[in-house]
Amino acid sequence: MFCMILFALLTGLSACRIEKEPIRIGAAGTMTGVNSDLSVSGRRGVELAVEEFNANGGLNGRKVELVVKDDKNDSETALKIDNEFIDESIPVVIGHYTSGMIVSAMDALKSEDILFLSPTISADALSGKDDNFIRFIATTKAQADILAIEACKNKHYRLAVVYDMGNKGFCEVLYENFKHELELRHGQIILTETFVKDTAADFSHLAESIVTSKADAVLIIADSANNAKIAQQIRKMGSTIQIYAPLWSNTADLPRKGGTAVDGMLIVGAIDLNDPSPAFAGFREKYFNKYGENPTFSAMFSYEAAQALFKAMKMGPDLKPATIKQNILKIKDFEGLQGDYQIDAFGDNTRQYMIFRLVNGELRKVE
With the C-alpha atoms ordered 277, 282, 283, 289, is the resulting torsion angle positive or negative? Predict the structure, then answer.
């Protein structure tokens, strides 16, 4: 009898121990190197959400443990770490953060037992598909449209475009959609230049091509670091040409690395740092106190992706990727830090973009 009681006690204690084991979720992005700003700020947003979730008791007492992996801005490395997540039975990954890290791999990953929640990948190639990918940002086409509309509103009809071949899944789609929308409004692209990531040290040749083209304006489709370098070369030549940029460039590194060269740039934005809503103000304060700088769109969308994940996890009945996916799609309408947003049946997002002007290192919304 004593043995039976002892066995029952030990079994109960073992069950409690297993029940309290952490729930492991992944975060994947470019965490090191010159192109890391987008992913690092995104990871920080996830970290804040995880800290809050755990402080509030987690899921029935189980805490969330964040497993972070670095894709090194390399598509082969990205696929390698995705397979590591699968091997480690991590059901959900928040990331990746650039289209080039996942678009070409989705055919290989879509049948795997894993779910990707991307805060920043807007590539149209992943739109309208029933797969294991959910995005928390609107499409690339929506960015292209608002940029073309803004350019024509400013009477910039002859555009030069420069884009990074290292992120083709995003850049080429943005380029084609921008070109289409510009031509619908009687504009044209008179110069197209490309570069490969990290191989164009000073970009002086690109700047010379842009300035001598006599374009009304230039759209630089690049990350913040390379955008800053190209802008500096353009300004060194004495040109005051208007520069446009996509959301990809919109991180804290742009004014930090670009200085006065990026002053006046018109750039796509997804959040308004001056939004007075209590939810966003609280998030901004927590982020600033912890990391010493303002949050980016990547940080906010990552925080919201984690919040959506936790809400889906609480719905149960299990933590399988397919269950979490269906729960997110079932919720559909989410309360964001700057207004509500929806996720449709294909895991696509309905957010609206904005245009901002950089003035003395600060973003000012263009009305």
Answer: positive
Query: What is the pTM (predicted TM-score) of this model?
Result: 0.82
Reading the chain (367 residues) residue by residue, the pLDDT tens digits are 444 544 544 444 444 444 589 999 999 999 999 789 999 999 999 999 999 999 999 999 999 999 999 999 999 999 999 999 999 999 999 999 998 899 888 888 988 999 999 999 988 888 999 999 999 999 999 999 999 999 999 999 999 999 999 888 789 999 999 999 999 999 999 999 999 865 556 799 999 999 999 999 999 999 999 999 999 999 999 999 999 999 999 988 899 999 999 999 999 999 999 899 999 999 999 999 999 999 999 999 999 999 999 999 999 999 999 999 999 999 999 999 999 999 999 999 988 899 999 999 999 999 8
The conformation of residue 19, written as its DSSP 8-state character, comes to: H
CATH of the domain at 89: 3.40.50.2300
DSSP string of 129-150, one letter each residue: --SSEEESS--HHHHHHHHHHH
Q: Is residue 95 part of a domain?
A: yes
State how many domains the chain has.
2
What the block records as the tokens of 49 is 């959400």
CA distance 337 to 340: 8
